[in-house]
Specification:
Strand content: 5-15%
Number of helices: 16
Strand order of the largest sheet: 1-2-3
CATH superfamily of the largest domain: Intergrase catalytic core
Number of domains: 2
Helix content: 40-55%
Shape: globular
Largest sheet: 3 strands, antiparallel
C-alpha cells in the first residue's frame, strides 16, 4: 500500500513551484531539463550536498565541452538559482557570487524593404499572413502564435498583445493592408470552430484561474486562437485533449524555405521581421519612444540598437529616397506602404 506521507520528488517540487510562480510551460520544461542535467553531471548527488564548486564546474563544462552560447549558459544558471532559492529555500552567499557569462553585443540581422517583399511574396496561406503580421506589427513569434480573436480591434486598427515578454500587455498597430486578409482568415477559422463545437472539442486553454471563474469562456469564440493547430493534442498540465495554437516551428520552416527560394544570403528568421519592422519605422521618421512602446521594450537602450543598425546601413551607402517626408507620413499606420517608393 503506497505511503501518502512520502514527500514529492525533487523535480516534482520544481514543477509545483514554477506553477505557483506562474512561469510559462516552456520555462518549466527548460528549468527541469537543466536541473536534471546538473544532478546527472555530478553522479546523481542531491543538490543539498553540492555548492558553488559544483555549480561552476557544471557551467564550465557547458562552456568548454558543450560549447554552448552565453545565453544558454545563463539559462542553466537561472534554473539552478531557482532550484536553490525557490525550491530548496536556501539563500547562500555564493549564489549571488556566481558569475554570469558575458553576452556578446551583436547587431541584429535586418532585411531591406526589397528583401522583405521578396520573402513575403513567396509565403501564402496562414504562414504568409503570420509573416506579414510579424513585419507589420513588430510582434514576437510567440505573441503572434498565441493571438486570440478578442485581441484584434479592426475598427481602431489595433492589436492588443496579452502577456507578452515579462508578462506585460501592450498595443501595437494593425496595418490597413492586412485587414481584409485577416478577416478572410477569421471567416475560415470560424468554420473550424463551429465544427469543433459540434464535436464537443471547442475548448481552449485559459490562463491562470479564468477557466474556473468563467466556466463557459473556454468554448467562447472570442477566446479561440486565431492560428490554431491542425489537430487536437493533450494539454501536458491538465491532461485535457483540445485544439492548441499552431506550432511555431511550422512558421519557422516556412520562412526558411521562402528565404532560400528568394536567394537572399542572410540568416533571416521570423524574428528578423520584427527587427526589420523597428529599423524601417525609425528610418521612416518614427520617434524612438514610440518604437519602444510598439516593441514592448522596458529599456530604451534595447531599442537604441536599431539606430546603430541604421548607422551601419548609412555607412554602407544606403540611398534615401527623395520623397522621404511623404513616406514618413504614409507609413505612420502602415509600414507596407513604404515599399513602393523606397524600392524604386
Amino acid at each position: 500500500m503506497p505511503n501518502n506521507n512520502t514527500p514529492p520528488k525533487l523535480l516534482d517540487q520544481v514543477r509545483d513551484r514554477i506553477r505557483v510562480k506562474h512561469y510559462s510551460i516552456r520555462t518549466e520544461t527548460q528549468y527541469v531539463q537543466w536541473i536534471k542535467r546538473f544532478i546527472l553531471f555530478h553522479g546523481k548527488r542531491h543538490p543539498l550536498e553540492m555548492g558553488a564548486t559544483e555549480v561552476e564546474a557544471f557551467l564550465s563544462h557547458l562552456a568548454v565541452e558543450g560549447r554552448v552560447s552565453a545565453s544558454t549558459q545563463n539559462q542553466a544558471l537561472s534554473a539552478l538559482l531557482f532550484l536553490y532559492k525557490e525550491v530548496l529555500l536556501i539563500d547562500l552567499p555564493w549564489l549571488d557570487n556566481v558569475v554570469r557569462a558575458k553576452q556578446p553585443q551583436r547587431l541584429p540581422c535586418v532585411l531591406t524593404r526589397t528583401e522583405v517583399r521578396s520573402i513575403l511574396t513567396l509565403m501564402n496561406g496562414s504562414y504568409g499572413l503570420m509573416a506579414n503580421l510579424l513585419y507589420g506589427t513588430g510582434m514576437r513569434l510567440m505573441e503572434c502564435v498565441r493571438l486570440r480573436v478578442k485581441d484584434v480591434d479592426f475598427e481602431r486598427g489595433e492589436i492588443l498583445i496579452r502577456d507578452g515578454k515579462g508578462a506585460k500587455d501592450r498595443v501595437t498597430m494593425l496595418p490597413e493592408s492586412l485587414k481584409d486578409s485577416l478577416l478572410a482568415h477569421l471567416h475560415l477559422r470560424r468554420t473550424l470552430f463551429d465544427n469543433d463545437t459540434k464535436l464537443g472539442k471547442a475548448s481552449v486553454y485559459l490562463p491562470d484561474a479564468l477557466e474556473r471563474k468563467y466556466p463557459n469562456a473556454a468554448t467562447d469564440w472570442a477566446w479561440q486562437y486565431i492560428f490554431p493547430s491542425g489537430s487536437f493534442s493533450v494539454d501536458p498540465r491538465s491532461g485535457v485533449e483540445r485544439r492548441h495554437h499552431i506550432d511555431e516551428k511550422l512558421l519557422q520552416r516556412a520562412m526558411k524555405k521562402a528565404v532560400q527560394a528568394s536567394g537572399i544570403a542572410k540568416l533571416a528568421t521570423p524574428h528578423t521581421l520584427r527587427h526589420s519592422f523597428a529599423t524601417h519605422l525609425l528610418d521612416s521618421g518614427y520617434d524612438i519612444r514610440t518604437v519602444q512602446e510598439l516593441l514592448g521594450h522596458s529599456d530604451i537602450s534595447t531599442t537604441m540598437i536599431y539606430t546603430h543598425v541604421l548607422k551601419e546601413e548609412m555607412g554602407s551607402g544606403l540611398v534615401i529616397c527623395a520623397c522621404q517626408n511623404k513616406q514618413r507620413q504614409e507609413s505612420r499606420h502602415d509600414p507596407f506602404r513604404s515599399f513602393s517608393c523606397r524600392n524604386r
